[in-house]
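Hey everyone, long-time lurker, first post.

I ran two proteins through the pipeline my lab uses and got sequence/structure pairs for each. Pasting them in order. The first:
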Amino acid sequence: MALFITDECINCDVCEPECPNNAIYEGDEIYEIDPTLCTECVGHYDEPQCQQVCPVDCIPNDPNHVESKEQLMDKYERIMAAQA
């Protein structure tokens, strides 16, 4: 599943540069994650990098975008093909 950023976000700017898919962007009030680009770092890392660096632990799994590891890998492969 994709991840999302809760309103507990303090806009510290550490998550955005860690995202290998450029899924994290600055929203109107807090950072946001584009679920069409979020692969939970599948294909890049063993764990979501944004969750690893978030100082307030405000990046949980998004229950509205449930995906298996296989679906996340397929999404990763589509993203990489589109960037090539």
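...and the second, right after it:
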Amino acid sequence: MPRFFFVVADGRNMEIQNDGLELPDRDAAWVEATTACGELLRDLDGKLLPGDQWCMKVKDATGADIYLLEFKTSAV
């Protein structure tokens, strides 16, 4: 099974969230990414401020970007 890596950047830090997950395919990596994003954003518990950015990149075993999920905030 292919291995996918999930990299989170919060505007201040960038880190690999895990040592990679073996998943059946890109579709399964998408489901994992969207689920993890929801949990991670919830865990911020109000700490995301206007002007902050948050994103997750999904990479394959070669390091190529597969998906990018972005969350940007701004004051209106």
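Reply from user beta_strand_b:
Welcome! Quick read of the second one: The radius of gyration is 13 Å. Strands lie at 3-9, 14-16, 21-22, 53-60, 65-72.
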